[in-house]
């Protein structure tokens, strides 16, 4: 197995499923190699959801992220954005606003959402997860979240 099941795994699953129920996703945080992404993937598999993992870096802009979000929201997949805090601070801010719009639509059970100037059908199975490694402490290229 890719993931060792521990009491912390149970706590992570419980927290993530509660977040999904409330229209949010999840934000596993911690040092590299501790199973943040694998936990999201394993939970998605247990709930029969397609989980797409995207490694974030300085080269991604908010329009690219918006197109990714559009696809996720339309098809009901989960997006797991690894090392989210490697995005440039300006991009982090814009992308965070896009995520808020999506979360509000999921929370209010809206049928559509406006993303990048387009009205998109919302699949209520969608989920957005963001993993973070600590800024500083030997992890180069990470920004503090706004």
Count of alpha and pi helical runs:
4
For the termini, the CA-CA separation is 36 Å
Q: Note the main sheet.
A: 3 strands, parallel
What fraction of residues sit in β-strands? Answer: 15-25%
> What is the helix content?
40-55%
Identify the overall geometry.
globular
Order of helices and strands: HHEHEHEEE
Number of β-strand runs: 5
Task: Describe this protein's structure.
The chain is α/β, with parallel strands linked by helices and 146 residues long. The protein is built from 4 helices and 5 strands. It has helices at 7-21, 36-46, 62-75, 89-107; strands spanning 51-55, 78-82, 112-115, 118-121, 127-130. The strands form 2 sheets. Strands 1-2-5 form a 3-stranded parallel sheet, with helices on both faces. Strands 3-4 form a two-stranded antiparallel sheet. Strand 1, helix 3 (62-75) and strand 2 (78-82) form a beta-alpha-beta unit. The N and C termini lie far apart (36 Å). 30% of the residues are buried.
Short description, anyone?
The chain is an alpha/beta fold and 146 residues long.
Task: Chart the SSEs and their pairings.
Blueprint: H1 7-21, H2 36-46, E1 51-55, H3 62-75, E2 78-82, H4 89-107, E3 112-115, E4 118-121, E5 127-130
Parallel strand pairs: 1-2, 2-5
Antiparallel strand pairs: 3-4
Helix pairs in contact: 3-4
